[in-house]
């Protein structure tokens, strides 16, 4: 077990995975008008499980299946992407807040406060 895992638990890994997912969702949104673009997403629960076992998380990435097919082959559905992005951003901020609190607690302990 790495030292960061002992200090921060899975929150450090979760933050990294949330960041990876946020970039993927942002890419989907940015390519909403690109013909043939295939939206991808990271299954966070699966990725976290893989990370806990020390496995590569690429197996948790999948192409999104659209509810309604588009004529140009693009699978980005803005409402779906925006909702996923907002939910992921909230979870990212929660993990970041936890880690910030943990760092502040450790800093006070080191200083003897």
Structural overview:
The protein is mainly alpha-helical. The chain has one domain (3-111). 61% of the residues lie in helices and 5% in strands. It has helices at 3-8, 11-30, 44-52, 78-111; strands at 40-42, 61-63. The chain has a two-stranded antiparallel sheet with strand order 1-2. The longest helix has 34 residues, at 78-111. The chain starts with a helix and ends with a helix. The relative contact order is 0.17.
Brief account:
The protein has 113 residues and is mainly α.
Set out the fold topology:
Blueprint: H1 3-8, H2 11-30, E1 40-42, H3 44-52, E2 61-63, H4 78-111
Antiparallel strand pairs: 1-2
Can you give keywords for this protein?
single chain; 113 residues; mainly alpha
């Amino acid at each position: 077990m790495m030292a960061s895992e002992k200090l921060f638990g899975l929150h450090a890994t979760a933050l990294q995975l949330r960041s990876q997912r946020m970039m993927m969702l942002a890419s989907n949104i940015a390519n909403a008008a690109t013909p043939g673009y295939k939206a991808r997403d990271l299954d966070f629960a699966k990725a976290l499980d893989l990370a806990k076992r020390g496995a590569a998380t690429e197996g948790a990435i999948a192409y999104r299946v659209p509810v309604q097919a588009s004529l140009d082959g693009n699978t980005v559905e803005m409402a779906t992407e925006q909702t996923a992005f907002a939910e992921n951003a909230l979870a990212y901020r929660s993990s970041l807040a936890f880690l910030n609190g943990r760092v502040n607690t450790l800093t006070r302990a080191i200083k003897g406060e």
